[in-house]
């Protein structure tokens, strides 16, 4: 490893039948979630496999089920008996949708949160060390970039397992319309702010009034801006998986089943291919007419420095905490990050700060800047799981 990077040589490959080894012996076979029908969804059931329990790899198995942008799963892990190094896999970046790898680092932070939650259940205490520095320049970097190290020490006695640990395999992004007839649980609503702690990360919520209207308009306008930006929408489209063969091949990316479509629309989308232009218009109208209009609550995670690497990781940990707590409370959540993606694109192209200033007005007084946007509500349908890559594809030898 040189200058915080590592070669992808030595990664376990899908279908190779390789077993991940640590000093204590075999932990879990990489082909346990490779090659079989529907293998792309196997990690959701294998995450707490008894073969991995009590070993560092169990934390990775929980980490890879975390939320992440476009289901790109942009992580690599180097596992040791006393540490797990996490790397940003820059080769899995979203291009013009995430030119500074800001969203990638938020996804890495989500994985860190899952790993921290999994530690007590597996007999570990963890200390997380985040790599300092700026996101500027990372988008052009070749090869993985070290993002954080999870230091492991054995617990002298069993420790309480956080309730959110049980929600890890149940947490899924819900893109369906929400049920406005059901009220959000008051206890969950009141506890939200306490889940986003730290001096550089906080939560801003919108329910009604002028600020909520401005939030909705910002998401709608940003969606239109992305559709009109050919490189942005192309970099988004390349992650879409439309067929079972694509899902099994890539084991990542958004799928039709998870798009929140009605049964009839879903059946038609699978049976009759449509043009990209039709897909983009459907995304716009679904966002405006079904997702925003049915959400009783929306919000922003705001930060002091949008392009600081540790802050982006901390924002991801906050989002994962929010989503796991919502899962326990029966609440549905969905990211709506289009406005921040347009801010990044403007910054990349030097187009001025109009969008940044627009979001700053929503973020509150001072120098707080939005880095994550979402909606919340009671589910009208259960959200399906997303594909996940096998552990052998993300663990370095």
Please tell me what the overall shape is: globular
Tell me the name of the CATH homologous superfamily of the largest domain.
NADH Oxidase
Uncertain residue ranges: 1-37
Number of strands: 11
Portion in beta strands = 15-25%
CATH C-level of the largest domain: Alpha Beta
DSSP helical segment count = 12
CATH topology of the largest domain: NADH Oxidase
Main sheet summary: 5 strands, mixed
Label the CATH architecture of the largest domain: 3-Layer(aba) Sandwich
Question: Can you describe this structure in just a few lines?
Answer:
By secondary structure, the protein is of the alpha+beta class. The protein is 37% helix and 16% strand.
């Amino acid at each position: 490893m040189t200058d915080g990077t590592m070669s992808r040589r030595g990664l376990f490959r899908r279908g190779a039948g390789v077993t991940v080894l640590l000093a204590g012996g075999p932990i879990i076979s990489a082909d346990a979630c490779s090659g079989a029908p529907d293998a792309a969804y196997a990690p959701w059931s294998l995450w707490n496999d008894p073969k991995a329990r009590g070993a560092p790899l169990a934390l990775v198995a929980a980490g890879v089920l975390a939320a992440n942008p476009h289901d790109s799963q942009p992580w690599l892990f180097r596992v040791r008996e006393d540490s797990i190094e996490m790397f940003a896999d820059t080769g899995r970046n979203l291009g013009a949708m995430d030119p500074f790898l800001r969203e990638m680092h938020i996804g890495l932070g989500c994985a860190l949160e899952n790993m921290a939650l999994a530690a007590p259940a597996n007999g570990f205490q963890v200390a997380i060390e985040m790599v300092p520095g700026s996101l500027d320049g990372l988008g052009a970097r070749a090869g993985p970039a070290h993002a954080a190290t999870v230091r492991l020490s054995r617990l002298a006695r069993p420790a309480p397992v956080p309730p959110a640990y049980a929600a890890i395999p149940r947490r899924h992004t819900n893109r369906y319309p929400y049920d406005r007839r059901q009220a959000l649980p008051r206890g969950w609503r009141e506890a939200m702010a306490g889940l986003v702690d730290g001096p550089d990360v906080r939560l801003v919520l919108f329910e009604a009034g002028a600020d909520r209207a401005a939030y909705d308009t910002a998401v709608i306008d940003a969606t239109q801006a992305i559709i009109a930006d050919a490189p942005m929408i192309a970099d988004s489209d390349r992650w879409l998986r439309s067929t079972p063969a694509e899902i099994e091949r890539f084991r990542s990316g958004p799928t039709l089943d998870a798009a929140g479509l009605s049964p009839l629309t879903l059946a038609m989308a699978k049976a009759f291919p449509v043009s990209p232009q039709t897909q983009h218009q459907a995304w716009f109208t679904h966002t405006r007419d079904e997702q925003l209009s049915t959400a009783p609550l929306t919000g922003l995670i705001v930060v002091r420095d949008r392009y600081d690497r540790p802050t982006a990781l901390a924002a991801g940990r906050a989002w994962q905490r929010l989503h796991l707590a919502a899962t326990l409370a029966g609440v549905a959540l969905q990211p709506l990050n289009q406005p921040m993606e347009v801010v990044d694109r403007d910054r990349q192209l030097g187009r001025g700060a109009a969008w940044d200033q627009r979001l700053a007005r929503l973020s509150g007084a001072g120098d707080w800047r939005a880095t994550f946007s979402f909606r919340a509500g009671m589910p009208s349908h259960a959200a399906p799981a997303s594909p996940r890559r096998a552990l052998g594809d993300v663990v370095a030898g």
